Amino acid sequence: MNPPIWEPSQERIERANMNRFVRFVREQTGNDDIQRYAPLYDFSIRHPEKFWPLVWEFCGIRASGSSEPVIEHPEQMPGARFYPEVKLNFAQSLLRHRDDKTALIFRNEWGHQRQLTYAELHAEVAHLAHALKEAGVEMGDRVAGFMPNMPETVIAMLATASLGAVWSSCSPDFGINGVVDRFGQIEPKVLFCADAYPYGGKRFDCMEKVRGVLAKIPSIRKLVIIPYSGDPVDLGGLHDAVSWPDFVDNPERALEFVPTPFNHPLYVMYSSGTTGVPKCIVHGAGGTLLQHLKELVLHTDLKREDRIFYYTTCGWMMWNWLVSSLAVGAAVVLYDGSPAYPDGNALWDLADEVGISIFGTSAKWIAATEKAGVKPRETHKLLNLKTILSTGSPLAPESFDYVYRDVKERVLLASISGGTDIISCFALGNPLLPVYRGELQCRGLGMAIEALDDNGHPVRGEPGELSCLKPFPSMPIGFWNDPDGEKYRKAYFDKFPNVWSHGDYVEITSHNGVIIYGRSDATLNPGGVRIGTAEIYRQVEQVEEVLESVAVGQKWQDDERVILFVKLREGLTLDDNLRKRIAKQIRANTTPRHVPAKILQVADIPRTISGKISEIAVRESIHGRAVKNTDALANPGSLAAYTNLGDSLTS
After folding, report:
1. Interatomic CA distance for residues 460 and 23, integer angstroms
2. Given this chain, do its domains 102-258 and 301-409 carry the same CATH topology?
3. Given its phi and psi angles, is residue 219 left (phi above 0), alpha (psi -120 to 50 degrees) or beta?
4. Which alpha helices (H) appear in 69-150, and where do they start and end?
5. What does pLDDT average to over the chain?
6. Structure letter (DSSP) for residue 304
7. CATH topology classification for 102-258
8. pLDDT in tens, 413-438
9. Residue 304, by phi and psi: left (phi above 0), alpha (psi -120 to 50) or beta?
10. Which of 1, 10, 612, 647 has the most CB atoms less than 10 A away?
11. Residue 24, φ and ψ in degrees, nearest 5
């Protein structure tokens, strides 16, 4: 049996919020069987009408209206609604603290630094909320941010939410069409942008793209520009444009919070959009708040004294998740720039400088730092670091080894997984449980997760479709411009009736951990045997010469064969010897079915703007089919290599 790679100390268990919650639930319910996580999880999915009010009380959420019913139509998915009689304001919950403790810590590549207390944050939100109100923003209106990860983005979101309006954001590296494909669907009244942003030692101007966006989205009545670079901003030719300092230059007024229904729209998020125009996923205020607090307070063990960081852009749901940490009163650390500039120690330097205790990043970045020979344990103190979070793609078992060997031994490494679709996690960390190589520690409380086989039956110890059998608060309240809910139903509920099918290929282990094998829509199927792409990537990443790879299925002689593309270290060329070593590594640690029929070298691998490998884009390209929306890719030019392979894929 695979032994744990890390176990929590008794002291850490006793101090954990999750441990306090176990006692709280036991006392409130009189159920003496709830002594550990396993019976607590069982209680949470068997009795959601009792569980969610206990989370609500434990996390101190404030609201008005009747808390009954907790769930309306609990037997329906979709159709169930949580707390239909409750009213609250999301921003009010995040600004519950109004003292001199640090709320935001900001750094960027340009060397900009800023720190805001909760009192200062509250005051800045008040000024902006008043300005938005004067600009005509009302409850239900949309406000959009084409913004870097900076304090003004957080302030703009909170001001928007305080009015009961709807916030939507994407990062400034999107092209004009990518922005229009998203914001054009929701017709925002106000757009926030920065004049420029830094990345990888370079300055990228935003104003030309903003002009293009304004020309295509007539609903925008006001453009607010943040002079981020410090250079003068030319507002010439921009109708109804104003700089941030001028926009918020108003007398100090009390911040008012508009009460909204629990299921009132808060955020519009977007699918990756590589198969067409992105879906606009609408998330509700109450469900987002309740789910995030459950995950942050209980699963992440976030406390007021913590400093929490996630390397993310404003176009990834981890930004929304991170910002909800304000509701706990913790300090939120924001960083804007490349995580590899000026070198692979940039984020570890930040962790030491500001005393990060909970550090979040992507599996790709952890693997890249290992490849680059970065060993923070030898070069950094990381004194406050207690938890490392990883998501975006499956974290390879070898990356677990790297963290405990070369980063820090006494740290909880929590691989987490969920998605934009639920603005939260299905499986994640737990301060009470051990960590096993290659596994997510547990299924989240209140999330009735199973791996289902093709017949819809739960399986253990073997891969299946990640499915949720019962409603949960952060399910989307719908898709934008989908009045009959048909697109929403088709996206998640077509495969198995009344069951959320997430599109991940997973295994639930004997000790209730979770292994992610990749997206089920990218699952390989040679000879009728289902293979998760992550199984191949885990092996290929062990080959020193390979930086990253992508595996897809190619239709071949009435079957499917596996094609592997590899990106090598600079200056290296793929030869037969290296091909044989890669194939041997895969065969020795998986099965002969996993060994690719072809291994080919490419200069780059297509990724979405949020950093995820786009296997679907590669698959479509090698079959000669057009990728419907290349604006969703960070590097669309990379696709040319896959459409011009000629004889390489015809033999």
Report:
1. 29
2. yes
3. alpha
4. 90-94, 118-134
5. 94
6. T
7. Rossmann fold (3.40.50)
8. 999 999 999 999 999 999 999 999 99
9. alpha
10. 612
11. -60, -45
Question: So what's the pLDDT on residue 526?
Answer: 82
Which tens digit of pLDDT belongs to each residue from 321-342?
Answer: 999 999 999 999 999 999 999 9
Confirm if 316 and 509 have CB atoms less than 8 A apart: no
Task: Give the pLDDT of residue 235.
Answer: 80
Give the 3-state secondary structure percentages of the chain, helix then strand then coil, rounded to 5: 35, 25, 40
Reduce the DSSP state of residue 499 to 3 states and report it.
Answer: coil
Classify domain 523-649 by CATH number: 3.30.300.30
The pair of structure tokens assigned to 499 is: 């069951």
CA distances from 326 to 54, 102, 248, 302 (A): 21, 10, 22, 10
State which amino acid sits at residue 166. Answer: V
Domain 301-409 has CATH 3.30.43.10: no
Residue numbers in the chain where pLDDT is lower than 70: 1, 273-276, 528
Tell me the whole-structure pTM to 2 decimals. Answer: 0.90
Do residues 609 and 270 touch, judged by C-beta distance below 8 A? no
Task: Give, in degrees to the nearest 5, the angle at Cα 394 between 19 and 313.
Answer: 85
Token pair for 579: 């091909």
Q: How far apart are CA 488 and CA 250, in angstroms?
A: 42
Return the pLDDT at 571.
Answer: 92
